Amino acid sequence: MAAHDLSAVRLEVEGGGRYPGPLPAGCDAHGLACQRILPPIAADGRDGGAAPADGTRAGDAVPAPATSSAGAGGARDWVATIWQDGAFRRDTWVRAKEGEPLPDTPVILSKRRWLAERAAFTGHTAPLGLHLDAGERLDDLAADLARFSLIALAFPKFSDGRAFSSARLLRDKYAYAGELRAVGNVLSDLIPFMRRVGFESFEVTHGPTRRALIEGRISEVTLHYQPAGSPEARCAARRPWLARSGS
Amino acid sequence: MYRYDEFDREFVRQRVAQFRDQVGRRLSGELTEEEFKPLRLMNGVYLQLHAYMLRIAIPYGTLNSRQMRKLAHIARTYDRGTGHFTTRQNLQFNWPKLSDIPDILKELAEVEMHAIQTSGNCIRNVTADHFAGATAEEVADPRPYAEIIRQWSSLHPEFSFLPRKFKVAVTAASRDRAAIRVHDIGLQLKHLANGGLGFAVYVGGGQGRTPVIAKLIRDELPEADLLSYLEAVLRIYNLFGRRDNKFKARIKILVHELGATAFSVQVEEEWQRIRDSALKLPEDEIRRIRAYFAPPAFEHRPSKAWLGPSERGFERWVARNTHPHKQSGYAIVTVSLKPVGGVPGDASAEQMEAIADLARRYSFDEVRVSHEQNLVLPHVRVEDLRSVYCELQAAGLAEANVGLVTDIIACPGLDYCALANARSIPIAQRISARLAARQDAIGDLKIKISGCINACGHHHVGHIGILGVEKRGEEHYQLLLGGSGAEDAALATITGPGFGPDGIVDAVAKVVDTYLSLRTSANETFLAAFGRLGPAPFKEVLYGGT
Q: Model's pTM, two decimal places?
């Protein structure tokens, strides 16, 4: 890949290595806009990474900006947190606010709210998403899953691997075909595993992981001994499951 | 034995490159120790009391001479000339430099070895009967299944962040040398009622602070369904195993809290859903893997051979350290790594090379590692026993004590381990020295010593178990009696108040004296006598009448 000036990217991680949570409205996002300096980098190392024209997905890849001027409004717009199809993209989804009516834009509900109010959402036309905490069961949602364009599974900490199994159940058992998103503690060394069990998009706020993704520097083992739910290229005729992924 | 093909080689090569990158990021300061920890653990690298420790997988305990020579080379080049064989058929180096570890892994890859999943909350190195493929007691060689599980579990994306570590052991013999009932999953290969091969599946065994004997949850699992069933067990465990408390996170707690029946119902439901999925083991694949473990080209030899002039040392060694082979004219030789007064499980680079040489010349190039921290030459011609014995003697490896009171299992303890509360090795050494002169008279008696409650030294299943604890800043040892890790699996019970480092050695001697004075004959083993007598007479000599 091209030798971009990465100093601006480092700015972003030096301030604690992690984005602050939801930014207060009007925050100038100083230092957070910096990833805009880099054009999105495709997973295969090519520049570009044009976004798919699919309205239900995360927004277009963030265009390279002219400057990272302070004082720009709408901090949320500046922070492209979703890694998908080889580029960071703005998140077009918002989490539903407790006790407030749903907006007319793509909105993610908690399981609790969905179960409590699902009848009221029948006529809602904007895409719905579902957020599941690690360990939240799926069996009482089986009939509803097709209603969601996106399901976000939480990884509360590095060592908590429950969402890997939830993802497999969603794909294999419940034939969920919408977008599966990993949120929470999404780190570079986990992403290859997440992809294999069916995740397609990743909310990444961890500075070093963002940098590794942007620089195409995720070190992974691309050969696999076992089926894991996602389609992969078989690579040994005589052996039943061997597969290869990625680059 | 299994040989890598291009895919296996490339897989391990990529894994080494990945770890080299991770070590580089750590050494440059990009990764903090906290961030690096889960990464190094997935490659068997621990940060111990004095140094990093590297644990190398020896899948199901099988090695060839080239691999053993490589381990010797690594011991000499990157360590202080010694390796330590563990109770899980692995090898540990206690003094590698972190910056050298990628090179060590690269050297290992050259001989088709690795350190993948020797630590971390994932499916660990799969262990098996160390007499597999050599003993007449088995229905078939269990190692092909262990290899199939090894491959399936390698960097499994769903099961690399389990609530806690997960250990699988496989045996195919009526005598259980793999301790399957103190594993998270124990598999007993057997003939099924319909005539095919399959498994009895035991789940939820383990040691540590909550020792549990595994429960049988499926009596007849067809071999074709092995992986789908394991996947179902692991998925239920991954989803529902406790994560709120590290000490309650093993599958044994989930099985206990749900009850074995309710647990097996959940597994069964998931398994029925996936049993005819992609994981069905093709007959061809079983046959293909089994071919790697085809018996060597045994010669037809007389079952009795003249072993040279009578000599007591050699005869003792033959009586203690050899076992019957399935092939007439051959014997299984156990090489004791328990010299009287020595460090259990340690082998020097020179000794590893001597054993590699013996394996090449006398045992079809095979060595095994036993979970009792000894090595095995599985296929030795009876007529070669004398030569093997003499060469072992020259290497300081001819201790004739297998199964005796000096054949002690001990964890590294406070001499090395960051988790330990007390030293294990010096206690083992002193007990060994104290009882060595009488060991033949004492007969079969397994002593197992752990330096902390994690029980790496298997004290719960020792005929005599010793648990090191810390009491008011001092090393203190609890004494347990009556355990077994074999087919008669049982948990040892604590005798009473513990002892100091001197007192524990005396206490073991008293227990042994009591056994000798109370046994009905020399044929009544310690475990049999304890079963008959119960703990009372032993407690009496230890603590006085109550």
A: 0.88
